[in-house]
Amino acid sequence: xxxxxxxxxxxxxxxxxxxxxxxxxxxxxxxxxxxxxxxxxxxxxxxxxxxxxxxxxxxxxxxxxxxxxxxxxxxx
Length: 76
Hints:
Shape: elongated
Strand content: under 5%
Order of helices and strands: HHHH
Helix content: 55-70%
Number of strands: 0
Number of domains: 1
Distance between the termini: 31 Å
Largest sheet: none
Number of helices: 4
């Protein structure tokens, strides 16, 4: 029997904010995909960041999203 050990690389909050700025170019949700929230990232992408409201809220929630990812807490 073999066991695979996977390691996560830590994400950087500054890169998360750079991806958040992508919303000004029509690419909403990239910061969520980067922080491991793929499903909600795709929802943000197809709805324009929930019509921009979700993008504004994520401006304040992004550090916590990155912190949760780095701590290994699985999120949706």
